[in-house]
Design a protein that fits this description.
Helix content of chain A: under 10%
Number of helices of chain A: 0
Largest interface: A-B, 24 and 23 residues
Helix content of chain B: under 10%
Order of helices and strands of chain A: EEEEEEEEEEEE
Structural class of chain A: mainly beta
Largest sheet of chain A: 6 strands, mixed
Radius of gyration of chain B: 14 Å
Strand content of chain A: over 45%
Radius of gyration of chain A: 13 Å
Number of helices of chain B: 0
Shape of chain B: globular
Number of strands of chain A: 12
Structural class of chain B: mainly beta
Order of helices and strands of chain B: EEEEEEEEEE
Oligomer: heterodimer
Chain lengths: 112, 117
C-alpha cells in the first residue's frame, strides 16, 4: 500500500529565509506526486505536481520540488519565504486510478 | 462559480442526528472524492466516484456513512446517527480523468466543518 511521511510536524523560518519541507513516500511503481497548501479555514490548493519527466518541477508562488527516486523523496523548496506562505503543507502520492494518499502535513510559521 | 463548492460551510448537530453534506464539483470533472480531516490530522480518504462506475467506498469508516452522486455531478455525503468522533472538516474534491487514464490533480472545495455536540 502506498504511504506518505512528512517527518516535520511544525517548521518555523524567518521571512526571507530559504525553506525545505520533507516528504518521503512508499510506492511500488513510479508515483504521481503532489504538494498542496492549506491556509486556515480554506480548502487545499495545488502547488505543484510530478507525473514524469524532469525531476525538478516548478509550481506556483515560487515553490519547486525535486523527485529523487533513489531516496523516495519529493521535497518542497522555496528560496525566500514570504509571510503569506504561513500555512499547512501536504504532500500526496497517487496511482493512476485511485485516490490520493496524503501525509499528515507540515505546519509552517513565518517569523517577521 | 468555477471551483468546487460545498455546503453548508459549518454544521453543528446533536449526537444521534443525521446530517447531509453537499458537494458541487467543477463542471466536466468526472471524478469526485470525499475526505475527512480531523483536527491536526492529514486527510483521510472516504469515497471516490468515477463516471458511471461503482464508487470506491473502501475508506468509509462505518455503515453510518454513505454517499451518492446524482447525474454524475452533485454529491451528498450522509452521516447517520452522528457521534462526537465524527466531528471534523469534510472536504470534497473533483478531478478530470479519462477512462483507464491517469488521475489528474484534484481540486478541493473549502470544506464543511461538522461539530457534533
Amino acid at each position: 500500500a502506498q504511504s506518505v511521511t512528512q517527518p516535520d510536524i511544525h517548521i518555523t523560518v524567518s521571512e526571507g529565509a530559504s525553506l525545505e519541507l520533507r516528504c518521503n513516500y512508499s510506492y511500488g511503481a513510479t508515483p504521481y506526486l503532489f504538494w498542496y497548501v492549506q491556509s486556515p479555514g480554506q480548502g487545499l490548493q495545488l502547488l505543484l505536481k510530478y507525473f514524469s519527466g524532469d525531476t525538478l518541477v516548478q509550481g506556483i508562488k515560487g515553490f519547486e520540488a525535486e523527485f529523487k527516486r533513489s531516496q523516495s523523496s519529493f521535497n518542497l523548496r522555496k528560496p525566500s519565504v514570504h509571510w503569506s506562505d504561513a500555512a499547512e503543507y501536504f504532500c500526496a502520492v497517487g496511482e493512476s486510478a485511485r485516490q490520493l494518499t496524503f501525509g499528515s502535513g507540515t505546519q509552517l510559521t513565518v517569523l517577521p | 462559480g468555477a471551483g468546487v463548492s460545498q455546503s453548508p460551510s459549518n454544521k453543528v448537530t446533536e449526537k444521534g442526528k443525521d446530517v447531509e453534506l453537499r458537494c458541487d464539483p467543477i463542471s466536466g470533472h468526472t471524478a469526485l472524492y470525499w475526505y475527512r480531516q480531523s483536527l491536526g490530522q492529514g486527510l483521510e480518504f472516504l469515497i471516490y466516484f468515477q463516471g458511471n462506475s461503482a464508487p470506491d467506498k473502501s475508506g468509509l469508516p462505518s455503515d453510518r456513512f454513505s454517499a451518492e452522486r446524482t447525474g454524475g455531478s452533485v454529491s451528498t455525503l450522509t452521516i447517520q446517527r452522528t457521534q462526537q468522533e465524527d466531528s471534523a472538516v469534510y472536504l470534497c474534491a473533483s478531478s478530470f480523468r479519462l477512462a483507464g487514464g491517469p488521475t489528474y490533480e484534484q481540486y478541493f472545495g473549502p470544506g464543511t466543518r461538522l461539530t457534533v455536540t
